[in-house]
Amino acid sequence: MISKQVDSLKKEYGGQGFSLLKEASISMESEFEMPVIVPLTEGSWYQFVFIGDISSKLYEVRMYDWQERMVIFRQKKWGDVDGNVISYMYIPKLSEFHMMKPVQVNKKKKRDLCGYVMLFKRTASDTGMVAPH
What we know:
Layout: H1 2-15, E1 18-28, E2 36-40, E3 46-52, E4 58-64, E5 70-77, E6 85-90, E7 96-105, E8 113-122
Antiparallel strand pairs: 1-8, 2-7, 3-6, 3-8, 4-5, 4-7
């Protein structure tokens, strides 16, 4: 299931002028954050994606800048449209490392939850997209 979502999102974001920079399948434990540290460049457009185990009930992603200030918080629940996928666009104000912390809650499986993270960077300049605020 996750591989189909990954392929679909790669195609979608590629068509919007984004290139895939990093991707990883991660083994997660229910209710425990999985820190992912990425270097970001000031003024560049990034698209972050977290895909959680389809059987989990809650999905959250928090992203922090280098000063440990939370700059993004997203939450989805099982049953939401694309409930196991959290994606967001981000344009950093400084070139520095950022930490993305996805977490998922699963009452049936405590360990060995499947997760997948992707980082895209906008490389095309004329996609007609408007910068997020």
